[in-house]
Amino acid sequence: MKIEADKSKKDSKITLLSLWRQFLPLSVSDVTMACGDPLITTTLAHLPLARVNLAAVGVAKAIAIFLESPIIMILHASNALAATQRSRQALWRFALLAGGGLTLLLGLLTVPIVFSALGNRLLGVPPELSETVRYVLILMILWPFAISWRRYFQGLLIYSGYQTAVAKAGIGRLVTVAVVLFIGFISQISGALLAGIALISGALVEAILVTFAAKNLGANRPPELTDSTKLPTDLKSVWRFYFPLATSMLIVWGGRAILIGIIARATDADIALAAWPAAWGLVLVIANATRMVQQVIIKNRGQAEDRLLLIFALSVGALCSLLLLLAGTTTWGNQLVQSFVGQDQELVERVRPVLLICSSIPLLVALQNATQGFLVGEGRTGVVNQATTVGTVVLLIGAFSAVQSGMNGAIAAAIAMVAALVTELICLAVNFKSLVVK
């Protein structure tokens, strides 16, 4: 299925500035979501058993996001399919089924015998972390359902032009996480359990806020266009459209969950399991600021020139990469790292090189999301899946090879992550001829 861009209808009023205006509120949503990780890291770093709790939360979140991964692209699908009433209704049913099913799977994983088989044996979770990780996952059982619900309504809001409402809901999520962490810190609750409570509380609050916003603003009302042969209109056709996107995210987050297992087998596993989640959380604060590039492109494809959309993506990615480079090389960057991971100087020294290696990631993520946006807008979701698969293979082979050679676990993960994104971007560029600027 290919949605052709009608050049004759392109709106000359769309400028780089107007694209940034659409993007910034959406970026706030992703940034506030990413900021939750450093807040959690900072809080846990100042509570007892900091390294153990940081490692346990890193493992638990990797598992939870792996199970969430099939419905991450609900946002993209909701934005792309919002043009017709029938496609919206079909996607809504799909979102409920997918979110509910994945929540049941997460609940099953928390059963001790199941977790022992998968968590301890497959992922190599150290015995001293096993029970803590399982308890965190119990607290997060509703995570996939809340994410699926939230992303469906976010897509409707973006399609209807209510980006500010998406940003406000993201801020609400961050405030919720901060309040829960503050109360837990004052009460001296176990760090890992506090993190689990904060994560699920934030996700539930944001899901509620976007739902009310969509209803109050009318974003959930059926559009004037009621039918289109270009869009899926039932569960079967939605599944055909969405399956490559779902498996793409499953591969991505499955790979990242396995990456934790690879790091757990590094010679410096004890500190690497704490350093990688802490460093990656900081990287994501900035890199996630670029992800909504994809939604802007899906929304504006056919109304603005591809050249302009690519320039927009490059400008976003370059700015964010510069910020991360400064964070890894300057004095204030060192102070920033210390504020997040506490006074554990060894942990600080492990985190800073990772930030430097990952400084190109925001630019790569911006370009990755831009090319994916073009492809999703044309219905070419299979290409996204193929590129993701190749990139994840590179990630795991690269990290495993580096760890086997004796490299620092967090450094190995960082190098492999950059190599994987570069590889994925090359695959997307080769398969998408529209990337050739006309």
UniProtKB/TrEMBL annotation:
The keyword Membrane applies. The chain crosses the membrane at residues 90-115, 135-153, 165-186, 192-214, 241-263, 269-287, 308-333, 353-371, 383-403, 409-432. Keywords: Membrane, Transmembrane, Transmembrane helix. This is Multi antimicrobial extrusion protein MatE.
